[in-house]
Amino acid sequence: MAMNGAQSLIHTLVDADVDVCFANPGTSEMHFVTALDDVPQIRGVLGLSEGVVTGAADGYGRMAGKPAATLLHLGPGLANGLANLHNARRANTPIVNIIGDHATYHKKFDAPLESDIEALAGSLNGWVRRSASAADVGADVAAAVAAAQDAPGRVATLILSADVSWGEGGVPATAVTPRAPRPVASDVVKAVAEVLRGDEPVALLVGGAACREAGLRALSRIAKATGAKPFAETFPARIERGAGLPNIERLGYLAEQVTYQLDGVRHVVVAGTRAPVSFFAYPGKASDLVPEGARVHTLAEAGDDVVAALEELADEVAADVEPDLAPAQRPELPTGDLTPQNWVQVIGALLPEGAIVSDEANTSGLLVPMATAGSPRHDVLTLTGGAIGQGIPVATGAAIAAPDRPVINLESDGSALYTIQALWTQARENLNVTTVVLNNRAYAILRLELQRVGAESSGPKARGLLDLSTPDLDFVRMAEGFGVPATRARTAEELADQFRRAVAEPGPHLIEAMVPPLL
């Protein structure tokens, strides 16, 4: 069958097991849009802004373990989606990022949307290629899918000029095998084992795939046998938690928290992540959070087989030791007005079995891990790159990747406003997502940071830039405008009743929880 470039692209995607495309297309991508009807195996999901598209692809990849495709319109479309692609880069999420461009012969005219797409895509430190002809598209797509899945995962961007898309001569290509995780040499494992057997205090910090069950069980065994302090990275892409799994503490967000957690440590062993650094620079404070004089030992880098390395290390130093597992234990349901302390108890008490939690609660959610440690087993997806506006789109993509699991989105008010259009996609696709927006009417984290950087001010201009009232935000009306049923909770009893009903009913729901600032 004769094909154009766009048709060969979609056939190649499907043959490589990429069967979801999150899209916000424009004129240059119309032949791709048309080709979607030729290949029923691929699902097109419309996002009303590019940040929704890229964030949803991130959430999908984290849960599916394989890439989704995105479809974005030229350089400005890519630029609009870059923040959540940044988060995906930090999460090592596999994404096949397809960017339409002007026809090759049209670019010389410098039309209004002309831009340097390669430069924008290059900022993601991933894989970038431009297809030269319709005949090249299939092989280029196969290479992109493989590149996205090269361990540990990355954003692979394919630029498709309009005339390459509509040009005849497209040929689907067979899938290419991605690069597998690298094995860790046994002498590296043995060297770390000797550090653990020594007399000096050790901290173990894990990330990436090590935050799943097998890695966490190995980490718990090692810590239990050696006395090392076990930690997960501050913002894991996906961490498994709950009753029956090791309850591993995450490294703190604030430098002061990390200093306390690593106090007295003389060796830091990292596996699947990097040694800790401060999220920001602060006057007179160190950026490197490894205790002064302590040594860093790398057991496994992000592209290594970190789980196998941890299991080998556990067999070396903890052969007969079983991991410590969190007991099934829920908080009691609280009563009274909502507070930063009691709303998390409601979630911990009612979190459903097998939930996927997209956590962008930020300052309002500091106590969530403690409240949910003994809840039924669940996954948590966190703000890996710090670019806010991730939570609602990531929840959207996760729900498409795992349609049989309830998705709970814990969302701060300020972050929600970046990509709240994702609620419309949830309604359109009838996704089982319960969003709890913590409305404290402020950028609370910035109030804290104002003090921590030494710029404390009580002036009206400074206060005004961190305030989300006057006018107050009404998330119930916003959600309903996007087609999502919504309610408002002011008490713990109201939140519990609304959360129960939202989780039990099919389709998306939003609860606006009126919670005062923690900070």
Search tags:
single chain, 519 residues, alpha/beta, Rossmann fold, 3 domains, six-stranded parallel β-sheet, 37% helix, magnesium ion binding
Strand content: 15-25%
Radius of gyration: 24 Å
Shape, please? globular
Widest beta sheet: strand line-up: 9-13-12-14-15-17-16
Number of domains: 3
**CATH architecture assignment of the largest domain:** 3-Layer(aba) Sandwich
N-to-C CA distance: 63 Å
Flag low-confidence runs.
none
> Which structural class is indicated by helix and strand composition?
alpha/beta
Family: Belongs to the TPP enzyme family.
Protein name: Thiamine pyrophosphate-dependent enzyme, possible carboligase or decarboxylase
Domain Thiamine pyrophosphate enzyme TPP-binding: 376-512
GO molecular function, one term: acetolactate synthase activity
Write a structural description:
This protein has helices spanning 5-15, 30-35, 50-64, 74-91, 117-122, 134-149, 162-166, 186-197, 213-226, 255-261, 306-317, 343-350, 368-372, 391-401, 413-416, 422-429, 444-452, 460-465, 475-481, 492-504, and strands at residues 20-23, 43-46, 68-73, 95-101, 127-130, 155-161, 202-206, 229-232, 239-241, 267-271, 295-300, 356-360, 378-381, 407-412, 433-439, 486-489, 509-514. With 519 residues, it is an alpha/beta fold. The protein folds into 3 domains: 5-166, Thiamin diphosphate (ThDP)-binding fold, Pyr/PP domains (Rossmann fold), CATH 3.40.50; 186-317, TPP-binding domain (Rossmann fold, 3-Layer(aba) Sandwich), CATH 3.40.50; 343-514, 3-Layer(aba) Sandwich (Rossmann fold), CATH 3.40.50.970. Strands 9-13-12-14-15-17-16 form a 7-stranded mixed β-sheet, with helices on both faces. Strand 3 (68-73), helix 4 and strand 4 form a beta-alpha-beta unit. It is globular and about 65 Å long. The chain starts with a helix and ends in a 5-residue tail after the last strand. The model has no long low-confidence stretch (mean pLDDT 95).
